[in-house]
Design a protein that fits this description.
The chain is an alpha/beta fold. It is built from eight helices and six strands. The protein has one domain: Ribonuclease H-like superfamily/Ribonuclease H (Nucleotidyltransferase, domain 5), CATH 3.30.420.10. Strands 1, 2, 3, 4, 5 and 6 form a six-stranded mixed beta sheet that branches. The relative contact order is 0.18.
């Protein structure tokens, strides 16, 4: 974390309304990350809603799948037929899901101060941050690592634009002979992202 990030993190901590989450603003341990994946009703954070979040710890070269979490939320608007074919979550699956606050009460301590690893993290964070800010007074302070950019830099040696191979997770998985576990399931996607990250980094 450079001095500018440290300054930003220090300012964010002054906005924190939940003291029990102060650990999130401390320096993370080396070789520890958390892989995250979200499923939403659509791709526009201003009009679509979060449906589920999965998170898995990565400790060194170990993916701790035995202690991961997959949280299904009840959105303010139920998913429609057009999007169900994408994320696989029906009204029956989410209508008894947890509130966003209950989800964050479990998710945020699990994330802690670990850097967040994901595929297309910009989108996931765009859905999470408004909920996080309302819940604890500030947005996520964590370093965010996008597997797409990491992979693109690895295979092309630069970060200007994304290679075609980096645009889709299954192409990265194929490059490293990582088995596909079934796409558009938040937990499976988080596991596959974690596996790919260990190869790419």
């Amino acid at each position: 974390m450079n001095w500018l990030q440290q300054l930003s993190c220090a300012w964010q901590k002054t906005q924190l309304q939940r003291p029990e989450l102060a650990l999130m603003f401390t320096t993370s341990s080396a070789e520890q990350w958390v892989a995250i994946d979200c499923e939403m009703t659509g791709l526009n954070p201003k009009k679509h809603h979060l449906l589920s979040v999965a998170a898995i710890h990565i400790n060194g070269s170990i993916i701790d799948t035995g202690n991961g979490m997959h949280l299904v939320c009840r959105p303010p608007v139920m998913p429609d037929r057009d999007t169900i074919v994408i994320h696989g979550l029906r009204t029956a699956d989410v209508e008894h899901g947890m509130s966003y606050d209950d989800m964050l009460a479990l998710l945020l301590p699990f994330i802690g101060n670990r850097p967040i690893v994901g595929f297309c993290t910009q989108l996931d964070i765009a859905f999470l941050n408004p909920l996080v800010k309302r819940y604890m007074g500030t947005s996520l302070p964590n370093e965010v690592i996008d597997l797409r950019h990491l992979y693109s830099r690895r295979i092309s040696g630069h970060t200007q634009g994304l290679s075609n191979q980096a645009q889709h997770l299954n192409r990265i998985l194929a490059h490293y002979n990582i088995p596909e576990l079934g796409a558009h399931d938040a937990y499976n996607d988080a596991v596959m992202t974690a596996m790919a990250f260990l190869h790419v980094r």
